[in-house]
Amino acid sequence: MTQTPDDAPDDPASIGGRILDTTALVTAARGDLSMQALFKLAHQHVIPLLAPATCVADAAAELHPQGRDALTAILRFPLVTLAALEEPQAVGSGILRSAHRPSPTTAGHVAYLAAARQWPVITAAPEPLRRLYPDIEVQTLPQRQ
Length: 145
Hints:
Helices cover about 50% and strands about 10% of the residues. Helix 1 (about 20-30) packs across helix 3 (about 55-60), helix 1 crosses helix 4 (about 65-75) and helix 5 crosses helix 6. By secondary structure, the protein is of the alpha/beta class. It has helices at about 20-30, 35-45, 55-60, 65-75, 85-100, 105-115, 125-130; strands at about 20, 50, 80-85, 120-125, 140. It has a five-stranded parallel beta sheet.
């Protein structure tokens, strides 16, 4: 089976990254200090960050124009890669979602990528992801007060 950039790396022991879901992208675009610390840590330790295209679309819909500008800047950060929703990911996430209807496409995409790569997801909303993929590793963002 041929690996694509959105599937698991050939060497599972290779350095892992983090997946940024919609809540993480929105939080980062709004200037949250915990997300700023994550980007600094990623830069210092060369930790890849994956932004699923479905999450980027949802984040852009949720943000005001200034936040969208910040989102664009985040996507240009050298360690951030956009994870497209191409045929293998679309079919895989659809199969994952099929056992848990109704389930949003975005959550399916994130859970599929987390399962394929075995990377933790940065999120403020872990439960929809855990319903799809109970073994998912999450790093939960602090609740805003």
